[in-house]
Write a structure and sequence with these properties.
initiation factor; 18 strands; globular; alpha+beta; protein biosynthesis; 24% helix
């Protein structure tokens, strides 16, 4: 086997870097007949110059760079110069003018961007940009004009995706940030939870009217205004949960509305907040009155969601008169209120109250209906269910949640035993041409023939809302979700609506289509629970950042939000 010998290492007797000038240095390591240009780290090479641009600034930069090169290694750098050989002597530069960009190409942003007849923005081209700068199939005159605007931005177009949303609650400087968790970390959590135990049932539910399953766009039905009362109090104000907490049946108490938001947190875009109160070893997850839990969002996950009008700058008087007013019925706030109104009335309308089959009463009456109430109750059943969040058999961590069902399907089994229960929800169409529509097709022309395209668009634009509805149905143990498709009778009128269709789907199947992982949701709930259990007794607020995919846990004073409630109570007393 051959051996390896290290070559000899010669030290520079002059004490510097590079080849030695000493005569004692070995002859074979001297550089012979090779020019050497001295270099120091302090030498400046000058600025980079654009030799193709003959403007004054760049000519000066080129001259400075050339002078720097001449100063560097002067006298010896010429030894490295390159000389043309005979074969290259015939080469000459023909044109050194800067190239002028041609107008009308698809890559040239500006006024001429739509005139070149390219597929990026030509009138009648195969591919064009849709409303709000989105790309999509088609062409036509409108898309060519919209492409011009993508290069030459319209009024406040640059603000559409850069507008900062306000938080759902005012963050006080006295609040202390305890934890900050990004959504990508929440998406990696997993916890498998077994089937729940049913504790108690309350309320009365009516049968679902199956005639709405046969409604089409050609036989639409008007959406009626039905006067009914439906209660959805927060966790701490629920008398049943207070009784269960007194018996220590669980350590965490909440409602399906609050729990679904937490389990679907990575899909949320709009801000929200959950008030968490720790009393002893118990946690209560509450909502605020008038908060984001009492309304339904519209196109929250769309690429260009509905926007509220930007308030004018009080320091700029000119802006008060020049800012165009947004159509009030298509703003984010107006659409949310409209969607809430539609969901309530569609749920009240699609049950049979005065015809067989008879309503079903659960084991106990509605716990929130006072004896002096005179208005009729809506069809609603409350199921208090117990979920075990423990990882090991010895760990005692149970969660009690109040769930809701809206009706039952006749002939599908005994509703008192959890058979044939239904949750009823509604999707709404406002104006396919309005800003924030999310590229939704016209339901009146596509719902019967291309229902898959309509459903796919809604799953994209309302991913968070549909995921929360699915989780609520699974928590309640419902067999079906009834989803209605409600549209405006006139796109310019948000007070009159019609029912175009209704469909039913199993919650587990819908969860698979939406890619909703219940194990991930339970992992998020367990993580938040562990964080709060490590804290001392007190009040905390879990806040979704309004503009970032982040949630933060704050420690707040015990009287937080109590002052606002007291003020509301005083105002109500004054009105009486």
């Amino acid at each position: 086997m051959s051996s390896f010998t290290l070559p000899p290492i010669y030290d520079n007797p002059d004490g510097g870097w590079g080849p030695s000038t000493s005569t004692n240095f070995p002859e074979e390591f001297k550089f012979k007949d090779i020019p050497y240009a001295p270099f120091a780290k302090s030498d400046k090479l000058g600025r980079v110059a654009d030799w193709n641009d003959l403007s004054t600034d760049n000519r000066q930069s080129a001259a400075q760079a050339q002078n720097a090169r001449q100063a560097f290694g002067s006298g010896t750098a010429s030894a490295f110069a390159y000389f043309h050989v005979e074969d290259e002597s015939s080469f000459s530069l023909v044109d050194n003018k800067a190239t002028v960009p041609r107008r009308g190409t698809g890559f040239n942003r500006g006024r001429g961007g739509a005139r070149g007849g390219s597929a990026w923005g030509a009138r009648g081209g195969a591919v064009g940009t849709g409303r709000g700068g989105r790309t999509g199939p088609g062409g036509g005159r409108g898309m060519g004009q919209r492409t011009v605007q993508s290069g030459r931005r319209g009024w406040r177009d640059w603000e559409k995706n850069n507008r900062s949303r306000e938080a759902s609650v005012v963050i006080s400087p006295s609040w202390q940030v305890l934890e900050e968790i990004e959504f990508h970390r929440l998406s990696k959590l997993r916890l498998e939870v077994d089937e729940p135990e049913e504790l108690e049932t309350y309320g009365r539910i009516f049968a679902y009217d199956k005639t709405y399953d046969r409604v089409t766009t050609k036989s639409e039905k008007p959406l009626q205004v039905v006067d009914r009362i439906k209660y959805n109090p927060t966790t701490s104000e629920d008398p049943v949960i207070q009784q269960l907490a007194g018996k220590n049946v669980a350590r965490v108490y909440t409602t399906d509305n609050i729990l679904s938001v937490l389990m679907c947190a990575p899909r949320s875009v709009y801000p929200w907040d959950i008030v968490i109160v720790r009393e002893g070893n118990n946690l209560f997850l509450d909502k605020r009155d008038g908060g984001p839990f009492d309304t339904v969002t519209v196109n929250e996950n769309a690429a260009d969601p509905p926007q509220d009008p930007v308030p004018p700058n009080p320091n700029n008087p000119a802006e008060k008169t020049t800012v165009p007013e947004t159509a009030p019925i298509n703003t984010a706030t107006s659409l949310s209120l409209e969607a809430t109104y539609i969901n309530q009335n569609f749920c009240f309308q699609t049950v049979t109250e005065n015809s067989p089959p008879a309503p079903v009463d659960f084991s106990r009456p509605n716990p929130f209906y006072a004896p002096d109430e005179t208005e009729p109750l809506a069809s609603c059943g409350y199921r208090y269910r117990l979920f075990d969040l423990g990882i090991t058999e010895d760990e005692d961590l149970k969660l009690c949640v109040r769930t809701e069902v809206d009706a039952f399907v006749p002939g599908a089994g005994n509703p008192r035993e959890g058979q044939g229960l239904v949750t009823i929800r509604a999707l709404n169409e406002f104006d396919p041409r309005a800003q924030g529509a999310g590229g939704a097709p016209d339901w009146r022309t596509k719902l019967d023939s291309q229902r898959g395209a309509v459903v796919a668009t809604e799953m994209k634009n309302n991913s968070c809302k549909l995921a929360k509805w699915t989780v609520q149905s699974v928590l309640a143990g419902a067999d079906l979700i009834k989803i209605g498709y409600i549209s405006r009778a006139n796109p310019r009128d948000n007070t009159r609506h019609v029912v175009l269709s209704a469909t039913s789907i199993r919650p587990t199947d819908f969860a698979a289509q939406l890619n909703v992982s219940l194990a991930n949701g339970w992992g998020i709930v367990r993580t938040v629970t562990d964080l709060c259990m490590k804290m001392p007794e007190g009040k905390y607020v879990l806040v979704k950042d309004p503009n970032k995919p982040v949630i933060r846990l704050y420690a707040v004073p015990a009287d937080t939000f109590n002052e606002a409630e007291d003020a509301e109570d005083e105002a109500e007393e004054d009105e009486e």
